[in-house]
Structures are given as structure tokens and as C-alpha cells.
């Protein structure tokens, strides 16, 4: 039975609660609402990266360059897509181990440079306004307990409230201005699927089953299974991988229920070869867990890694924060893996006894017809009725947020009796989110197969009686 880990809203020590109050004080101050309520302003400006514009630019460039209908998976930051070359072309040249080591070193340095440049780019963005910070924060909360979300950043920064605020502000800028998380979530699977060839890189990862969410581990955590042998860098752009990673992580967030607030990740390396290695998505995933989804990884299993992975691991582990590194375990057999996941919850193709195999079925409906009646994404279409319904729900949520902020201000000032009321409003926010969900999140395979219910109910094994 899952147990509640320390430092959660339900079991804070007096010292930890004081730190949480300090963090809330800094947070509300950054929103401009510490001294009292402030009227909501319009949503923030569009993010720097616009995926629709990038797709259009990529399609135009592709047509201009070769005059054919060849598949182009998109571009990064609106640039024309670059021709892809093998990340391990040196292998075909018959190079020896020294050549391999030099190429690995070059790739490592290249990824470290890119990561540093990205962090510097984010840091150089104009400061977010208080209105933008407030909007992004409450958009990020979703169905979470607001205290639980703040505590993730606070624990990640060892209970230093100022450092936690700095980390959270960078995450809000990353979500809104850099990655446009809201659009990735709203488009879901249906929009990329209906785009066809121009967005094939995103869909390829879903259809192939490169990474999917299924079942739970021994502690009740949702499990993300990653089939490393299915990855080839040429099949999608780096941006496609980033969007797919965010889509998967945001979906997994919806599956967390207290006391379970972390996930399990299993990298199935049984068919992995050097041709599958791609440092960019590994680095991106590490940055996600360490910087933008803190305290979300419960355990990570690297299963049946071949000898060739040893040199790669020496590079990857140098990028890891010690806390994250401590959660990574190598398993060499099914018996090893059952220390973390019961055998009957490990699919047969990975060595367990569960009679289940990932299949991307049923697929999204092909088109949204006029009237959008009965279509799974009918609520995310900008019809007059949907716009009015969403506006009403958002107004109700803003009222709940204002009430929560008011109670938080009083609680910070020492009104301990407001704690129970804050908890009640947090539950109302959670319930209210699921009314909004169908308007702001495109449906996907986990909705169609019954893992995620219409009102937020979760069934990790919908096919089991």
C-alpha cells in the first residue's frame, strides 16, 4: 500500500509549514496580490515558439527546396528544417575505439553547449509581468493541490524559499514562452494526427509505442515504459521529441493521486544498439525532471542494458543531479525488475506475465465534421458555444483562485483556523479542473481506452475485470 512521503501537505512539520508560508508569501508578492486582491488581466502574449507557424515555415521550405510532397516533420523555433545525418556516422567508416571515444566526447560537448545556450536564452527573456506569472502558475496547477505543487519546488531546493521561487519562475517562463505547454496539451493527439505528414514525427512516437504509460509499480506509481530500441534520430525532429515528452509528462501528471505523487520510468534496453543512441532527448528529459517537473521521478529502471551502453552511461550520469542519480537502478533480469514492479504487472514482451501489449488503437477520428457532434475533440474547437462555456468555467475558477489566495494571505499572517478552509477550496479547485479539462486538453489514447475517465477517475488496468 502506498505511503505518504515526508514533506507533503498532509504531514508537514511546524518548521516545514513555516517554510511553505514563506514561499507562498514570495509567490503572492510576485503575482502582485500579497497585499490584497487584484483584478485579473488578459492572458499573456503568445509564446516565443509557435508550433503552427513553424509547421507552415517547414512545409514552405520543403516545397521550395525540392518541389515535392516529401515528409517534413516540422522545424525548431520557426527555422527551416535541417537535413538530418546519422549521429553515429563514424561507425560506418570502420573507425576504431579511439574514433568512437572522440565522437562520443564531441557529442557530449555538443549537447552540453546546446543545453547551456538554451538555459542562457531562457534567462535572457524579458521579465514576466505579475499578471503573466499569476496566469501561468494557476494554469500549471491543473488538478494539483496548490500546496503540493509549491512543495515540489521547495523540496527540490532544500527548503530555501527564495531559490524555490527562482526555480518556479523559470519553469513558468519555460512552459509559457518557450515550450508552449498549453498548446501541446490542447492539441493532444487529434490535431497532430489530422495534420498528417507535416506532423508525422510526433505521431510516429505514439504509433510505434516508443514510450507509453501503462500500469503501476510496486508502490502504486504510474509506469512509463520506454522502448529504446525503437528510437532513431532520423524519424523525427528534436522539437517533435520535446513535444512528445511534454505530452507524456503532462498526461502522467493527471494520473497522480495522493499519496502517490511520483512516477516510475522503465527504459527497456533489450534491443538497444549504438544506432539508437541520441543524446538530445536524454538531455531534455533530464532537464525536465530536474528543472521543470521537480520531485516527479520516483524510480527509474534501466533494464537489460547491453555492454555498449556502459560508455554512454558514463557520459549521461555526469549530467545527473545526485538526487536524480540515486533513483536510477540497473536491472539485468525480470527477477531484478520485480523488485520494483510485480511480475503480473510487467508485460510479457518485457519478461513478465501480464498478457498485454501496447497498441495505438483506437486512433483519433480523422476529421472534425460541421457541428462536431459526438467527436472526441468537439469541446476544444472554437465554436461560439464552446467559447461561452469555457469563459463561464474560467470565471468560476478565477473566483475559486481568488478565494484561495485570500485564505492563504490570512493563513500566512497567522490565522491557523484558515487551514481547513484552504484545504476545502483546494478540493474545489481540483474538482473544477475536470470541468475545464475537456475544453483545454485534446483527447488521447488514454481517454479512448478508459485509463482517464471523463471526470478524472483513473483506471490503470481498464481491460481487467
TrEMBL record:
Basic and acidic residues bias locations: 103-122
Positions of the UniProt region annotated as Disordered: 63-127
Domain CRAL-TRIO: 213-358
Record Gene3D superfamilies: CRAL-TRIO lipid binding domain
Pfam families found in the cross-reference section: CRAL_TRIO (PF00650), CRAL_TRIO_N (PF03765)
Signal peptide from the UniProt entry: none
InterPro entries associated with the record: CRAL-TRIO_dom, CRAL-TRIO_dom_sf, CRAL/TRIO_N_dom, CRAL/TRIO_N_dom_sf, PITP/CRAL-TRIO
Superkingdom, taxonomy of origin: Eukaryota
Compositional bias (Low complexity): 63-78
Protein's recorded name: Similar to CRAL-TRIO domain-containing protein C3H8.02 acc. no. Q10138
Organism (species): Pyronema omphalodes (strain CBS 100304)
Amino acid at each position: 500500500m502506498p505511503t505518504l512521503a515526508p514533506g507533503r501537505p498532509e504531514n508537514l512539520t511546524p518548521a516545514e509549514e513555516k517554510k511553505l508560508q514563506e514561499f507562498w508569501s514570495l509567490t503572492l508578492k510576485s503575482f502582485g496580490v500579497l497585499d490584497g486582491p487584484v483584478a485579473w488581466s488578459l492572458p499573456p502574449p503568445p509564446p516565443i515558439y509557435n508550433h503552427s507557424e513553424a509547421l507552415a515555415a517547414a512545409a514552405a521550405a520543403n516545397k521550395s527546396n525540392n518541389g515535392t510532397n516529401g515528409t517534413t516533420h516540422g522545424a525548431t523555433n520557426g527555422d527551416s528544417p535541417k537535413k538530418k545525418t546519422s549521429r553515429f556516422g563514424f561507425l560506418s567508416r570502420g573507425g576504431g575505439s579511439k574514433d568512437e571515444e572522440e565522437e562520443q566526447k564531441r557529442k557530449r560537448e555538443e549537447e552540453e553547449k546546446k543545453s547551456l545556450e538554451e538555459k542562457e536564452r531562457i534567462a535572457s527573456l524579458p521579465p514576466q509581468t505579475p499578471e503573466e506569472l499569476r496566469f501561468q502558475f494557476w494554469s500549471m496547477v491543473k488538478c494539483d493541490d496548490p500546496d503540493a505543487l509549491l512543495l515540489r519546488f521547495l523540496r527540490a531546493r532544500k527548503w530555501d524559499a527564495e531559490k524555490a521561487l527562482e526555480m518556479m519562475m523559470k519553469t513558468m517562463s519555460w512552459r509559457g514562452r518557450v515550450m508552449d505547454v498549453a498548446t501541446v496539451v490542447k492539441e493532444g493527439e487529434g490535431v497532430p494526427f489530422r495534420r498528417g505528414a507535416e506532423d508525422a514525427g510526433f505521431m510516429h512516437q505514439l504509433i510505434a509505442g516508443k514510450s507509453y504509460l501503462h500500469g503501476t509499480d510496486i508502490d502504486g506509481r504510474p509506469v512509463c515504459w520506454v522502448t529504446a530500441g525503437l528510437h532513431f534520430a532520423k524519424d523525427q525532429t528534436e522539437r517533435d521529441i520535446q513535444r512528445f515528452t511534454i505530452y507524456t509528462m503532462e498526461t502522467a501528471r493527471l494520473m497522480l493521486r495522493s499519496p502517490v505523487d511520483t512516477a516510475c520510468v522503465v527504459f527497456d534496453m533489450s534491443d538497444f544498439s549504438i544506432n539508437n543512441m541520441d543524446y538530445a532527448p536524454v538531455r531534455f528529459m533530464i532537464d525536465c525532471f530536474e528543472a521543470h517537473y521537480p520531485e516527479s521521478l520516483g524510480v527509474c529502471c534501466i533494464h537489460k542494458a547491453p555492454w555498449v551502453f556502459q560508455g554512454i552511461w558514463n557520459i549521461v550520469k555526469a549530467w545527473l543531479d545526485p538526487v536524480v542519480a540515486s533513483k536510477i537502478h540497473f536491472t539485468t533480469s525480470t527477477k531484478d525488475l520485480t523488485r520494483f514492479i510485480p511480475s503480473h504487472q510487467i508485460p510479457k514482451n518485457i519478461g513478465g506475465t501480464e498478457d498485454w501489449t501496447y497498441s495505438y488503437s483506437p486512433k483519433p477520428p480523422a476529421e472534425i465534421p460541421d457541428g462536431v457532434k459526438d467527436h472526441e475533440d468537439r469541446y476544444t474547437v472554437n465554436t461560439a458555444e464552446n467559447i461561452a462555456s469555457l469563459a463561464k468555467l474560467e470565471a468560476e475558477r478565477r473566483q475559486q483562485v481568488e478565494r484561495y489566495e485570500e485564505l492563504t494571505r490570512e493563513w500566512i499572517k497567522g490565522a491557523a483556523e484558515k487551514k481547513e478552509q484552504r484545504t476545502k477550496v483546494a478540493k474545489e479547485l481540483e474538482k473544477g479542473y475536470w470541468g475545464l479539462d475537456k475544453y483545454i486538453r485534446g483527447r488521447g489514447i488514454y481517454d479512448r481506452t478508459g485509463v482517464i475517465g471523463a471526470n478524472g477517475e483513473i483506471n490503470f488496468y481498464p481491460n481487467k475485470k
